[in-house]
Each structure stands twice: as C-alpha cells, then as structure tokens.
Amino acid sequence: MKIYHNPRCTKSRQTLALLTENGVKPQVIEYLKDLLTTDDLNELIGLLGIKPIALVRKNEAVWKEQFKGKELSDKELINAMVENPKLIERPIVVKQKKAVLGRPPENVLKLI
Questions:
Q1: Which listed residue, of 13, 57, 73, 76, carries a Cα 20 to 30 Å from 41's Cα?
Q2: Distance of CA 93 to CAs 44, 68, 75, Å?
Q3: Would you kindly state where each structural domain of the chain is located, as residue ranges?
Q4: How far apart are CA 87 and CA 76, in angstroms?
Q5: DSSP string of 71-83?
C-alpha cells in the first residue's frame, strides 16, 4: 500500500495514522519532495476513477492566481498539477489497482 502524503496536512496525517492503527505500514511518498510525473498522475486519476479537475485543490493561491476561471483540458489540468504539486488533493492511498482519496480519512478503510 502507498500513501501520497503531505506531512503538513492534517487530513494526510490523520489518514496515515488510521492506516498505522489498522496494522498497515504503507510506503509513504511525500509528493512535494518526490515529484509526480504526468504518467504518475494519469495512473492515479485512473485508479481513483475521477476527472482531473476533481483532484485539484481550488483554494490554493496558485490556482486562484493562474488558473481560476480558465477552461482547461484534462491534459492542461494534469500539467498544472505536475508543475504545481500543491494543487494535488491529498492524501491519496493506493492498494494494488485501487485508490481512494483520504477525505475523510475513513475512506481508506475500504482498502484494508
């Protein structure tokens, strides 16, 4: 199991704690340090079964300053997240070919 994690995010920390409390020792990927590629994001979005816009944090300053109000294609949204990883909603937990967004953290219990 993997968790795409931001240690500064409360929900991400809560999700990691919930996994640990349930005996799971996930591979922790700090995606702000270990940057994701376009292929990585495409795979995660596919596993989550969502559109790229659903993975964008729209309250981030970079979104409001550079992208808000623009009509962006899926490819453009993915490129924006690759170039600005703070835009990626977190945490994302992956187990084999399934993934969930840890919002709320209890969503990850579906993978255990």
A1: 13
A2: 9, 27, 22
A3: 2-111
A4: 13
A5: ---HHHHHHHHHH
Q: For 2-111, which CATH class? A: alpha beta
CA distance 43 to 101: 14
**CA 44 vs CA 4, 51, 84: distances in Å:** 10, 11, 16
The pLDDT score that the predictor gives to residue 13 is 97
Measured CA to CA, the distance from residue 4 to residue 19 in angstroms comes to 13
Please write the tens of the pLDDT for every residue from 19-41: 999 999 999 999 999 999 999 99
For residues 90 and 31, the answer to whether their CB atoms sit within 8 Å is yes
- Residues near 16 by beta carbon (within 8 Å), at least 6 away in sequence: 3, 5, 26, 28, 91
Tell me the catalytic residues.
9
